[in-house]
Amino acid sequence: MALSNEQYNALASELDDIKQQVQAQLGEADARYIRRVLLLQRISAISGRILLVLGFITPWLWGLGVLLLALGKILDNMEIGHNVLHGQYDWMNDPLLHSRRYEWDIACESGSWQRTHNVEHHSYTNIIGKDRDFGYGLLRLSNDFRWRLRNLWQGGTYLLLSMLFQWGVSYHELAGQRVFFGKKKNDRQTQVSDTELKKAFFVKGARQLIKDYLFFPLIAGPMWLWVLCGNLLANLIRNLWTSTVIFCGHFTKEVYAFKAADCENESRGHWYYRQMLGSSNFTGPTWLHILTGHLSCQIEHHLFPDIPARHYPKMAKQVQAIAAKYGIPYNTGSFLRQYSTVFWRIMRYSLPGGKSAVKAL
Amino acid sequence: MLGNQASVRLYLLPLLQAIWPGFLPGQYRARLMSASWQTPDMVLLRFNVSSRWPGFVPGQHLLLTLTHNGRNLSRPFSICSPLSLWQATGQIELCCKVSQSGSFTPLLASLKSNSVVNISAAQGDFSWQQPAMPALFIAAGSGITPIASMLLSQRHWLAPATLYYRVRGTENAALLQRLQQLAAQQPLFTLHLSDSRFEHSDVFTRQIGTAANNKQLYLCGPSAFMQQLSTALVQAGVAKGDIFQEQFGPALPVLAGGDNSGQHQVALQHAAGNKVFTASANLSLLQSAEQQGVNPRFGCRIGVCFQCVCDKVSGQVRDIRSGALSGHGSEQIQLCISQPVTDLVLKQ
Q1: pLDDT, tens digit, for every residue of B287-333?
Q2: Cβ separation of A101 and B6 shorter than 8 Å?
Q3: B20 and B76 belong to one structural domain
Q4: What is the pLDDT of residues A73-124, one digit of tens each?
Q5: Fewer CB within 10 Å, N side or C side of chain B?
Q6: Residue range of the domain that includes B21
Q7: How close B292 comes to chain A (CA, Å)?
């Protein structure tokens, strides 16, 4: 055990204090901020779609349209969707920005994502066998997983997953529940039947496909191919970006994983401790933080998932000081440095052997 | 579908709000024209309402939504002005009791002239059912508001109506002047003022009991007052079907029978069917629900994942983590970290 019980309790109360300080300040400024981001998102998505059609004037306009549409999708998924679905803005009692009502521009239905991401991933972060986000059942990211032949080409698998990331996210729950393939696990508990899972998957997926690849190309008339390709490209950019950001949050070099047995009946302090070890940050300017939905502050996000994300960079300084005080590793670095270690990890563990990521607790 | 939201209007909401700050879908704009104090703690607010607002039946209430510090807060208020005012000028009046310790009404009292709030369509079924039958109106305190609207709206009087208005001192009788004026003009209307400082509640109840014969009864006032009075009236032989009442103000934590053992009734309106369960004051709502076989959606059970968020329609809860008390109005709560303080109506 790395810390004593007293230390875990002290850690929990210090982190709770930081949370309460921010919670007490929530108000007008946060509401104004998220509405501004929403406005920017709507303007970029709508103008992007219009510019795709205006590509007949000059292809440059089409190119700008692709970028704006991609920006719209990224803002919708990251700073707005991800954070709203975490309940960060539930206190506003807003008809749009509420975790039970918001639906995002991505293939994954919001309810399914809340179950796999908010419940599974956020409660059991990096616990081997419980948090399937550690490698998504596709990639071998440490020597805690047996090497299989298919890991040899996991560099390619990773590239494919990144390009189709929204579909990976959307299929994640169905894969976990073995809806289509594999033997059902006896110990898995589910509140949602396979039929409902399939329905959510197909309905939301079909809506996204119809919208981007049928409806908008059709209303563009002769420009249909431009619009179709533009939408495809915008989705691709968004997929690559979200995948890259998310991989940097949990698969960097110095990130730790845990054994399920070590986490049974854990205290709040222990949970906090595990969140800090299992996540990693990267640094950058404000616009970069916004484009990542502040997942650049993955550690703070995992400690305080329901605090509006714009507060994370400020909280990060306090959290880092606390980490230093208790001697807990605080994993941060530049975007490029963090990403290169992710890439190294994927490549290294495509071959047999290597080190275990498990931290003995 | 195109914007991934339930409606195009919801998708365009950020743009609409950029043009009209504070715009809320499904709500109507109301501009505050004037505010005046009726009594030391009741303020009369006159609003100019949007021409889209569908109107009201006298006796109905509406939800008024204020945006304060980034939060949308809503409370129900009865309309107290006559129908003719709205028909002639597009204005309505609300008479609101301001509780200085509350989180909502002080904001309402400090609204500046010309500020814009959102109101819902009028709702509720408390209205004068059969104006051709003799009727007895009983109002206590701020319970006068819907009843004043009913009486002041009446154009063709067909049968006698009597109002028993119970207040703590005449200086606390809101809308009294208008009602006195009506009594002076309309021979079929009688006004009795009962001052609770001098007239004991037993005397008052007995008075009502004798006057209630063969009349329709309309009751509005604090929960405890109404409970006590309607029980007494039923015992005195008044048919239950002749008593119409409007639940007014916050539900009281102490219920019929006067016990406070920490058990509260929770009505859960669910897409799959409505359920009722008894919630214990020292368990989370989620635990109580599950113990009785009601299974709301849940997730992490520690307030992190927001799977169990419910719309609270009415009632008060306590946040287990911080001990903070919620308001009485509609808002969202997480079942796993909320304990009941009063009876609740929830929607999931």
Answers
A1: 898 888 777 777 777 777 677 889 899 999 998 877 788 988 888 99
A2: yes
A3: yes
A4: 999 999 999 999 998 998 888 889 988 789 999 999 998 998 889 888 998 9
A5: N
A6: 8-119
A7: 17
* A98/B73 CB distance under 8 A: no
User: In chain B, which ranges are E strands?
Assistant: 28-39, 42-49, 61-68, 71-78, 91-97, 116-119, 135-140, 161-167, 189-195, 216-222, 243-248, 263-269, 275-280, 309-314, 317-319, 331-334, 338-340, 344-347
Closest Cα in chain A to B299: A119
B71 and B166 inside one domain: no
Residue of B nearest to A38 (CA): B14
The domain that holds B295 is classified in CATH as 3.10.20.30
- B28-39, strands of its sheet edge to edge: B71-78, B61-68, B116-119, B28-39, B42-49, B91-97
**Closest alpha carbon to A82 in A251, A233, A325, A308:** A308
Domain count, chain B: 3
* Contacts B305 to A, Cβ<8 Å: 87, 114, 118-119, 122-123, 305
Confirm whether B126 is domain-assigned.
no
B15 domain-assigned: yes
Contact (Cβ atoms closer than 8 angstroms) between residue B266 and residue B288: yes
Residue B253 lies in a domain: no
Residues of chain B with Cβ-Cβ distance to A93 below 8 Å are 71-74, 331-332
Cα-based angle A108, A104, A59 (whole degrees, multiple of 5): 100
Same domain, B300 and B231: no
B110 with B23, same domain: the answer is yes
| ipTM here | 0.87
The answer to whether the Cβ–Cβ distance between A39 and B18 falls below 8 Å is yes
Strands B71-78 and B135-140: unpaired
Looking at the fold, whether B157 and B97 belong to one and the same domain comes out as no
Verify that B88 and B19 share a domain, yes or no.
Answer: yes
